[in-house]
Amino acid sequence: MPRKRRLPTRDELRVWREFLETGEVLRALLATRLQADTGLSPSDYAVLLALSEAEGNRARSSDLATLVGWERSRLSHHLGRMERRTLIRREECASDSRGAEIVLAPAGRKAFHAATVPHLTAVRELFVDALTPDQLAAAGEVAAALRSHLDR
Amino acid sequence: MPRKRRLPTRDELRVWREFLETGEVLRALLATRLQADTGLSPSDYAVLLALSEAEGNRARSSDLATLVGWERSRLSHHLGRMERRTLIRREECASDSRGAEIVLAPAGRKAFHAATVPHLTAVRELFVDALTPDQLAAAGEVAAALRSHLDR
């Protein structure tokens, strides 16, 4: 629903700022907990999660960039750091322009599995427990509406 | 409402991931628009906004860190970059342990004012226009519930 007026109202802006700021506080708290509990950053966790869910635990770097929603250059730098920590392996593919294939390595699989319960516990304590069932459903609806709008 | 079970259900996790991922897409799109339209990063904008709203357009760095929700070290690095671009000034205060006083400089005031309309337009187009009035109210309620939970 495009509206005619040009700028958000004061109430709309208040919701936006509350939404933005709360999301930042939530991400920062979760990142601190994840790092302290598991030694993984949220970026590490996002890559390991995507590879864990990928067919054969491997993905082209171009596909992985889409899955985690990052620019190729950011992904490439981060994968370099994860490779040095033996969490993932890169298998170069000279014949293929879609980039190297990224493979979940044994240490990455182990770190991801060890992180799962602490991470999910933190998500429950910081996010799920904050909301009533109705609020949780509303959060899902809001996210879906935003996603569908932004995908256009 | 603490619940007895330990891990989130599949549905709760689905909402969490959708909420997290949509927030990231939204922030990335807004950051790209802000940078392209105004030459300011979201971090620049957050600092300029906080100083614009502060009494006398100045704040102690410790208070500014609270206002923008960052660690002191992150704020300090960022303020160094903003000072070199003459967007802000730092006035050291040897007698005061709360840190330097940060002052909105003329170029910062000008950049912030020039950014306001493009930024608010982007917030309307990317966030407000995505949601029905009921969804917007629900987003505000969800954010307030999260904030109140996380502040405890």
TrEMBL record, chains A, B:
SUPFAM superfamilies: Winged helix' DNA-binding domain. Residues 12-152 form the HTH marR-type domain. One of its GO terms (biological process) is response to stress. This is MarR family transcriptional regulator. InterPro entries: HTH_MarR-typ, MarR/SlyA-like, WH-like_DNA-bd_sf, WH_DNA-bd_sf. GO terms for molecular function: DNA-binding transcription factor activity.
